[in-house]
Specification:
Layout (H helix, E strand, L loop, with lengths): L1 H9 L4 E6 L6 E6 L7 E2 L2 E4 L4 H18 L4 E8 L7 H18 L1 E2 L8 H11 L7 H8 L3 H15 L18 H21 L7 E5 L3 H12 L3 E7 L2 E9 L1 H10 L13 H7 L7 E4 L8 H9 L4 E3 L15 H9 L1 E3 L1 H4 L2 H10 L7 H22 L6 H13 L1
Parallel strand pairs: 3-5, 3-6, 4-5, 7-8, 7-10, 10-11, 11-12
Antiparallel strand pairs: 1-2, 2-5, 8-9
Amino acid sequence: MKELLKIYENKEPEIIFNWKDAETEAEGWTVINSLRGGAAGGGTRMRKGLDMNEVLSLAKTMEVKFTVSGPAIGGAKSGINFDPKDPRKKGVLERWYKAVSPLLKSYYGTGGDLNVDEIHEVIPITEQSGVWHPQEGVFNGHFKPTEADKINRIGQLRQGVIKVIENPGFSPDVARKYTVADMITGYGVAEAVKHYYEIYGGSVVGKRAVVQGFGNVGSAAAYYLAQMGAKVVGIIDISGGVIKEEGFSFDEITDFFLTKNGNTLATENMIPFAEMNDRIWSLETEIFAPCAASRLITQDQISQMINTGLEVISCGANVPFADKEIFFGSIMESTDEKVSLIPDFISNCGMARVFAYFMERKVQMTDEAIFNDTSSIIKKAIQNTYDKNPSKTEISKTAFEIALTQLV
């Protein structure tokens, strides 16, 4: 696996597109790791301090993810080094998408990512630049449909991603009109845990869980974990957190979800961040869902969790460990050798899978069909890993080997 990984990591990306905004200090990159299958896909993120290396590592991560989620295309990513709180953000995005529109019409598909919203920013702004849909390049480069088929499938994709969830089994509150895009990634993180126990033995019911991050992914993961009978004992995010050693009830977790402030937990009796960061890693827990930013979790933090009975980690964040390597650094490797570590490209592939699902011909547009499809894709990936290595350790190493064999 390490030889395959070295070859894959060291391979130069096929295309690097660099843009400097004429009106602000913003700088952006689209990195296309490869045009495998004639196209590449990956979202657009914005943060102050972002650099090309971050975009490159995420493009390579996307390519690995597509081996699970489909379609069989190359990995790409766009990143803009700019403060997303700056009031000039909209203009920056408009000029960025205009510059990158030839790629989006030909062979590159994008979507939302960190600080860039799929529904309110990516779709309307790319449309202004003459792009039918942010995934148009994947249709043209990979699927090569007839014009009529392309119109139908883009229509399906447009409707599907912004579809309001009507089934109360998948939504914390149907009256609030949460969309598939709001919930699907966190749903996949929770389903990965459920399928892990089904395949490797045991049950998620009654297991204690800690969730890091309470944005779209973390809050949805906590909601679905509680719904399936896990006991969420701690939630930590940038604003602080909450602890209840006997576990919060499903109603309490639902209330946290409904009262969050944007991407942060907002409830009475919040424990300050410094105290939370001191206490949460030594809580007795079997399940850990890291769903905050990349590269945060230190060796000391994860060692404390392992020492207090941790069984499985389901990664909502891309590369959650504080390793400098693109993929398999020393913290990740030592964790993989001690507990069951479901890698990000399996557990957080929900949104990528939704795109792939709606790109197929005439799929069912019900909540059940969409969510069950993501669940079955994640289950299949975990089952394939188990079939190659039934041990509860080195799950990530095995999953990478399966993926990289397809790419190298």
